[in-house]
Write a structure and sequence with these properties.
Layout: E1 3-7, H1 12-22, E2 26-30, E3 43-46, H2 48-56, H3 60-65, E4 68-69, E5 72-76, E6 82-86, E7 102-105, H4 106-119, E8 123-125, E9 130-135, E10 141-145, E11 150-153, E12 155-158, H5 165-170, E13 178-189, E14 202-207, E15 212-217, E16 223-230, H6 244-257, H7 265-270, E17 276-283, E18 291-292, E19 295-297, H8 312-329, H9 333-362, H10 381-385
Parallel strand pairs: 1-2, 1-12, 2-8, 5-14, 12-19
Antiparallel strand pairs: 3-7, 4-7, 5-6, 9-10, 10-11, 13-16, 13-17, 14-15, 15-16, 18-19
Helix pairs in contact: 1-4, 1-8, 2-8, 8-9
Bound molecules: flavin-adenine dinucleotide.
The site of flavin-adenine dinucleotide has 34 residues, from helix 1, strand 3 and helix 8.
């Protein structure tokens, strides 16, 4: 194994490239967008598990530098009553300082990971939209791009996100992601009144009667908030930044969802100017086929969690590191990908399921995945706890442990 073609310069792409580099395997990242995307709106929370996965390849520092912490969480009900407690993971059990949770813009995370990958010698090519891939008689793979160019490698890693083409190149019957019946709206405001703003270092989570709001305070004092709201799938022109009128419309709509409550949620939203963006929330519970020949999917391309558990980016990071370990120790792609699936599938599908349960609080019935077995129903005890302090956060990757084909 000497060279990997990595499709997608988001999160799983640059992380898998860095992890392969650490394993002595070359990689080039091909990103469809012509220039680094400046995603003005979305922000992310990275929990301990994602940051610990980055630490295994010594890539956590740029992400820490680009983000800010919150080490306490305050859960409020629709009446504004609740309690504060430390965010889970304050005891990691291994005596090391806890790295998360950290909040940062998605574009800042993309940039930090990409720049760190480039600093390590990984080539990232922009304007390279994968349109096809074929496998030669020698087992090597050729990626074909929309601009007419192509590239050959030993393996092709599809880190191309929720709308992955790689997924359908591997399996034309692959299921499509499902809209969860939820719209996630993000806003930023320096003008939230003091009595409505969370204290520094606190993540305030408000379970309203009709929607869910989470907010925290950035170091400059601005409040960053997201609201998970019920709503059907939006056309592209209504997403992302939109027009000023659309942004004002989102503010009024979201504020209205909290208007009957006595919590600070409505005040937080009303204090927001035009820095407000909306996103469709999708999930993909089960991709039956993750690999074929020298091609494999990882990150959102393989499993997409609704945003409710705030774990998609962390899972994408974990995938990138684990896949590199598999390719390091098992030079035959088929064996490496089988081991990757063995090590990852149960965990990622459990997390997608958990996110679906949390989503079901916002959209009654949305937690059900009719197409797959398992609980997936609204309102189990785990969902009710709303507690990120669960087994998922304590996942650790042992970089040095050898991966075997047999399991
Ligand atoms: C509103 C919202 C809030 C979220 N909040 C959180 C959170 O708080 N915490 C968290 O952990 N996760 C969160 N997530 C989920 C997280 O954003 C994703 O799980 C994560 O970005 C997945 O990383 P990825 O690398 O697999 O895919 P992506 O980040 O989507 O990257 C895929 C890349 O592939 C590129 N690409 C696509 N097609 C092609 C092609 N044909 N050729 C070349 N390149 C291509 C894309 O342009 C993109 O750059 C949230 C998601 C949403 C929508």
């Amino acid at each position: 194994m000497t060279h990997a073609l990595i499709i997608g310069g988001g999160i799983a792409g640059p992380v898998s490239a860095m992890a392969l580099h650490k394993a002595g395997i070359g990689a080039t990242v091909y990103e469809a967008y012509p220039a680094p995307a400046d995603d003005v709106g979305a922000f992310l929370v990275l929990f301990h598990n994602g940051l610990e996965a980055l630490r295994t390849i010594d890539a956590h520092r740029p992400v820490l530098d680009a983000s800010f912490p919150a080490d306490r969480v305050e859960m409020l009900d629709a009446q504004g009553h609740g309690r504060e407690r430390p965010v889970s993971g304050s005891g990691t059990g291994d005596g090391r300082p806890v790295l998360g949770p950290r909040t940062l813009r998605r574009s800042a995370l993309y940039r930090a990971l990409r720049e760190e990958a480039e600093r390590r010698g990984v080539a990232v090519e922009f304007g390279k939209r994968l349109v096809a891939a074929d496998v030669g008689p020698d087992g090597r793979v050729t990626a074909r791009f929309a601009d007419g160019s192509s590239a050959r490698g030993d393996v092709l890693l599809g880190a191309d996100g929720v709308r992955s083409l790689t997924r359908t190149l591997i399996d034309p019957e692959a299921p499509a992601p499902r809209h969860t019946g939820q719209i996630t709206v993000c806003g930023f405001s320096p003008l939230v009144p003091a009595e409505a703003a969370p204290a520094p270092g606190v993540y305030r989570m408000i379970r309203g009667s009709r929607a869910f709001l989470g907010c925290t305070r950035a170091p400059d004092g601005a409040v960053w908030w997201f609201a998970n709201t019920p709503g059907g799938e939006l056309a592209p022109e209504r997403l992302a930044a939109g027009t000023p009128e659309q942004r004002a419309g989102w503010r009024d709509h979201v504020a209205g969802l909290f208007a009957d409550d006595a919590s600070p949620a409505e005040a937080v939203v009303r204090a927001t100017g035009d820095r407000i963006v909306a996103f469709n929330a999708y999930d993909l519970a089960h991709t039956p086929v993750w690999s074929r020949g020298p091609m494999v999917v990882l990150g959102d391309a393989a499993h997409t969690a609704a945003p409710n558990a705030a774990q998609g980016a962390s899972l994408a990071i974990e995938d990138g590191v684990v896949l590199a370990r598999c390719l390091r120790d098992l030079p035959l792609p088929g064996e490496a990908f089988a081991a990757f699936e063995r090590l990852r599938r149960a965990r990622v599908e459990a997390l997608v399921d958990r996110s679906a349960r949390l989503n079901a609080r916002v959209v009654p019935g949305a937690g059900r995945h009719a197409d797959r077995p398992g609980p997936g129903a609204a309102g189990g005890p785990e969902a009710e706890s709303g507690d990120p302090a669960d087994r998922f956060l304590h996942y650790r990757i042992d970089w040095d442990a050898p991966v075997s084909a047999a399991g």
